[in-house]
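new request in #modeling-help
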Amino acid sequence: MSQTVIEVRNLTKEYKDTTAVDHVSFRIEENKIYGLLGRNGAGKTTIMQMITAQLFSTSGEVRVFGEHPYENKKVIQQICFIKEGQKYPDLFTVKDVMVTASSVYPNWDAEYAKALIEVFRLPMKRLIKRLSRGMLSSVGIIVGLASRAPITIFDEPYLGLDAVARELFYDHLIEDYTENPRTIILSTHLIDEVSRLLEHLIVIDSGKILLDTDTDELRGRTHNVIGHQSAVESFIKGRDVIHLESLGSTLSATVMGRTETEVKQAAEQAGLETAPVSLQQLIVHLTKNGKVASR
Amino acid sequence: MNGMNSVFKMQLRQKLTWFYLPWAIMGLSFLVNILVSVLVGGDTIYTGGLATIFVFMFVTALTTTIQLFSFAMGFSIRRTDFFSGTFLFILFISIITSALLVLLSYIEVWTGSWGNTVHFFHLLYLSDGSWLAQFVVNLILLVTFSMLGYGIGAFFLRFRGIRTFVMLAAVMIFLSGMSLVATRYEWWGPIIKWFAGHTALGLSLWFIPVVLIIALCSRQCLRKSTV
């Protein structure tokens, strides 16, 4: 059992007319890569802002390394939070941002930052506000990677980045994570692209947690069961069906079992075909229905 | 220490608006005044060009507070460190600016008001007293103007647009009300007499508690601010 670095209990954030985060509880363990997934407005950013004490919760508790993060230098210096809407001062150049980051994060690796700047082809002397959208995202990515913070959070880090740069980001993330293990939380829409990176998933919808599970376990538990309509229909009776799709007399059901191998084995015994489900499809189906079951 | 240091350095990177821009504009105004004086060829002109620097301090403190706060928060800096780093920087830049102003004031006297053209840096009343008195008066005024901007910025970060507007409107109404009352009861005479009875230095000392109160309120506002 690895150590818990973030613990969130009954965290709630209410605004005048909406509840952005609704009694959310979860734990984040040390040295793992987490995916925080959900649709726009699901409450992902709000949760991360409360973890980093940028926002105040209405109720509930946040503990980071066992302490409250608010005005806690020891804690917040261990967190690097890269968010999509990060604001930069008008007069700052790329270099200024790197210098600031180096003075803030204790584990900052200047050599690595320099190498990344070359990889992402960033102009050091250009003002941040003159960067293109993709370049701006690269600045965040470089800060996040080179900070080597024990908890690094990327919230939609690659708006405007092209596919090549995104691949570069994933590769560097994995490579550096292997050499310098730390806790990484990745929040994104591009689920299939990152699915190979994520070890653990937390899926959020309308401020509530839909799913909190290991990625491999989830993959094992969930299968598409395909076969003749009547056979599939009798198979899925009493099971947890996430999605149904029919093509003529063929029916395909996305089924979530209780244990890893249960669905696959049972389906094979019933003479039905099974196919793996992509993580993206699964999340889409889950958040589309907004089903909160005892998963 | 290190968060405060980072904030200080962040402010230092804004030296264009804290330092170069106000001095450039004031310098331009100074040159234009000399030119006009030479062309007109009359008496030595008194100008209010010196006010540029104070207005700039106010505006820069206001805008950099708002801009840098959310940036600093995103870079894992504590709110209290942001407050003290910025406060220290305001003191620092005011000390430098004030020293330069004293120097220029002395040069102005030494050159006979730049060859009897303009009174720009050495003004009646404000520039009375020793170099140290002048330095302290400048310093306190610069810090006061900056802290006013800083305070409004911090209030805005805490309470956002509409309430900041209401606060400023309320202050304006209060001040206008007070001046009406002063006119109605003919207080202006005694008030002016009181001012004249004190030196610029003696008066400026009154701003120290004002600055401290604004600082305290700004700190409280920032501690409750979110991005």
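bot summary: The mean pLDDT of chain B is 90.
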